[in-house]
Every structure is written in C-alpha cells, then in structure tokens.
Please model this.
Amino acid sequence: MERFLNLTLTGVSSGVVYAAAALALVLIWRSTRIVNFAQGGMMMITTFVAYSVVRSTDSYWAGFAVALVAGLVLGAVVERLVIRPVEDAPPLNAVIVTLGLLIFLQAIAGMIWGGEPRSFPVAFGIEGYDVAGTRLLFSSSDLFAVLAVVVVMGLLVVLFRATPVGLRMRAAAFAPETARILGVRVGRTLTLGWALAAMVGALAGLLVAPSTFVSPSAFDQILVFGFAAAVLGGLDSPLGAVVGGLLLGLLLSYLSGYAGSEVVTLGALVVVIVVLMVRPSGLFTSGAGRRV
Model:
C-alpha cells in the first residue's frame, strides 16, 4: 500500500509538469490553431536564462521571474519573426517551421551554455512529508508545482471564458477574416497568444528542471509527454490539459513502478494512439469544437 501511495504521489508531481507543458500547447492551439513542436526548445532557453540569473544573483526567485518574462518576450518574437510569415500557408508549413525552430534553439543553447548538463536549484525543500511515521515521496517543491499549475489553469479558464481578450483570441484563431471585419487586431492577438503560451512553457521548464539536468535536449521528452497530455485532455481545453497531464503522470508512474522504466515512453505513445482512435477530440473537448 505504501508503494502504491508513493507511486501515486510521484505521478501527481510529474503529472503537473506534463500539465504545464500541455497548457502551453493548448494555449497556442486555441489562439493560432498551430501545434508548437518548438515548445520544448523554448522551455529549455528560458530555463537556461533562469539558471544564469540564479548563478549571478544567488536568488531562485530572481531567476524564476526573469524566466517568465523571457518566455513572454521569446513567444512574442517567435510569432512575429518566425510564425507570422507562414500563418496563411498550409498547416504543414507551420509544423516544419516549428521543428526547424526547435533545432535552431538547441544549437544556440549549445553555443552559449555548452552541451554539458547543469543542475538546477529547487524552490523549496525536496524532503518528503512525514505522515504517521511514513516518509512520503512528496515534498514542498512538489506541492508548489501543483499549486502553480492549478492557479495557471484557473487563470487561463477565466481568460478564455470571461474576458474580451480571450474571446478575441478565439475569434482570431477560428475566423481571422471575420474577426478583422469586427475590429479585432488579429496580429496583436496572435502575438499575445504565443507570448502567454511561452510564459506558461517557461513555468513548466522551471518546475521540471530541478528533477532533471538542464541541457539543450533535456526537455524533448517533456514535450512528448506534454503533447500526449494535451491530446488526452483535448487541445481546446485548459482543464483537459491539466487533467490529461495528471492522468498521464499517474499512468506512467504506475508503469515505471510495476513494469519498469523502460516502458514509460511506450506507454505515452499507446495513450496517444488509443485516444486518437477512440476519442480524437480528447476527454474535455466536443467533436464539433475540434472540427471548426
């Protein structure tokens, strides 16, 4: 029973990281109808920026704040300079561009910080809580990650459902020409969507960095798991991204604990295939919404 409980807590702590990565993918999809395969590289760049600030200032929170701002700026720059020229092109063009951007960002990171993996500090303690004499594999840093992702998910739900900005972002994504006629500044709206998504991705990088070494290709697997979580929950649903991330984290934790860590990646692939075959719209998105 103790093993099952610890595997569950481990799944929750890793699942919220997948949820944060999925939230970034969902935010870009909802605002631009593009799946950003460069999200892992953007997470990596902002985490390296945080690493440099922490080393220079000896302050985790200074690095945390700078990384979020860097993500906001990076997302806006990428949309303006890289994505905008292919926004009206066939969807495959954007996919190829984001894959090329991923390779470019990894090369830039290698030239600036080198290819040697770097350790990243934690926000709080890493020792698990003691409950009734049992040491649980769930620490203060894990609790911080859970709360951070829940807060971000709530803010995104409010943004899309209860604010004019969210309505304009959805209109610009689904019907840009109609939105322009109605006075929506589509270009600025799309830039805002990418900026917010990159900031959420930066948060995901900061949350996962203490549990892994930071390197140019460190977050590739996190992107894969984040994409699987987004597909599971539904690419149109911030709530679905969080639930999908938690479900995926639990599933992979149980697989790793009972079947071995070598089947974890295969498990994520199976999840994606099954969801696309059985419910391609995801658990929290209607089929009609995805066909628009």
In short: The domain at 2-113+132-291 is CATH 1.10.3470 (ABC transporter involved in vitamin B12 uptake, BtuC). Residues 158 and 166 are 8 Å apart (CA to CA). Residues 2-32 form the longest helix (31 residues). The radius of gyration is 19 Å.
